[in-house]
Write a structure and sequence with these properties.
The protein is of the alpha+beta class. The chain is built from 3 helices and 6 strands. 16% of the residues lie in helices and 29% in strands. The strands form 2 sheets. It has a 4-stranded mixed sheet with strand order 1-2-4-3. The radius of gyration is 16 Å and the shape is globular. About 5% of the residues have low confidence.
Length: 129
């Protein structure tokens, strides 16, 4: 997780998924809206901010040399789960045209989707460029 940074939109390129560019420690990274990419409903913390991205929390994640920045609503930390804890994704999710859910795990009494990172980052690089 990182401190908030200004998102610089790119004329004629920024959209609901690609928010713009962010400079973090001298490195220019692409900022992506997970909410719009995954088709998630906004978390309604208050009526005034339910449709906005919270600029107070951002995560840098990626694979190999490709790093991305994601504004997020909540960060609980990094956890490891054993493979036998994962259950198959529900059919409704796994049959969706853009299903990134590889499985579901229960954490603190809630069901959490485990994303297919290969498909997720492949789709990101093709939707943004």
């Amino acid at each position: 997780m990182t401190h908030p940074y200004a998102i610089h939109t790119v004329p004629h390129r920024s959209n609901s998924v690609f928010l713009g560019l962010i400079n973090i420690r001298g490195e220019t990274l692409l900022c992506i809206s997970l909410r719009d990419l995954l088709g998630l409903e906004p978390v309604a913390e208050s009526a005034d901010f339910s449709n906005t991205i919270n600029p107070q929390r951002m995560i840098v994640a990626g694979k190999n040399e490709n790093k991305w920045v994601f504004p997020v609503d909540e960060v609980h930390g990094t956890y490891r789960f054993h493979l036998n804890e994962f259950k198959d994704a529900p059919v409704v999710i796994s049959k969706a045209s853009e299903a990134y859910t590889k499985g579901v795990v229960t954490w603190q009494g809630k069901k959490i989707n485990f994303l297919d990172s290969e498909l997720f980052f492949y789709t990101l690089s093709h939707k943004v460029f």
